[in-house]
Write a structure and sequence with these properties.
5 helices; alpha+beta; 8-stranded mixed β-sheet; binds zinc ion
Length: 316
Amino acid sequence: MPGPISGIHHMTAIAGDPQRNLDFYAGVLGLRLVKLTVNFDVPNTYHLYYGDEVGRPGTIVTFFPWPHMRRSRAGAGQFFATALSIPPGALDYWRERLEAHGVQCAGPLERFEETVLAFEDPDGLPLELVAHQRAEERPGWPQGPVPAEVAIRGIHGVSAVSLAHERTARVLAELLGLRELAREDGRTRYVAGQGGSGAIIDLIEPQEATPGIEGIGTVHHLALRVPDDEAQRQVHHEVAEHGFRVTPVLDRQYFRSIYFRELGGLLFEIATDPPGFTVDEPVERLGSELRLPPWLEPRREELIRQLPPLRRPGTA
Ligand code: ZN
């Protein structure tokens, strides 16, 4: 029986320059900036959220732009590539678009009967576009710079390399309730809930166990989604029962979250689907101005003075 986790909620990575990040994800990849806010724990830095038109769970990729952080090293104990979902006919469009923007692509290669184009964002974060038949079950954003029929539909899956492969496999299957779907070339595919695009974690067997170093261009954490607070309480209980240190519930304004790091080095967040990104601005205004949670609103002037100004692509 599937547990309360129904798929991926969002992926969060560390970026360098916020303007370069915005230009790439909103401008080149054509995702919608669904929330312009600050990091609630480091409020003099941005937290940029990209997603589909309304920022549905499973379409969201978010960044902490920390230009002064150290450079990273990819390795074990990290989430690796984030795969984004595109319709099967969109592959040529994307190869041309990425190359026109100076982004080098590897592939297409075949994996689990899907076609994968691999590349990196401007900070070296590994990304993939995965072309597959069921991509069109999720809508493309009609007002973006990329035509809706070829637009990115959200997260397809995320891959990870653990420092303790077997232990992480058990966390995925026994604690988080994912099920093993397939194995291919040292890669084991797990799916949450009903499975499908947006519910996939691929655990890759490490070639060598050199630990990665967190920094610019690496994934900070992966958030899995639960439908409500009750389901989150259930997962909180399970995580604690398995002996992991888990945070109390934190109010992230657009969802409520708990976090725990498993023994393979991977930081997981469990985030609620509600209330979503329209809680403090209407759909048509999403991402158009800096939003702060109520407890930071009194510091707005001070924070704006410390934050670098940002220009959204396509605006003057
Ligand atoms: Zn998060």
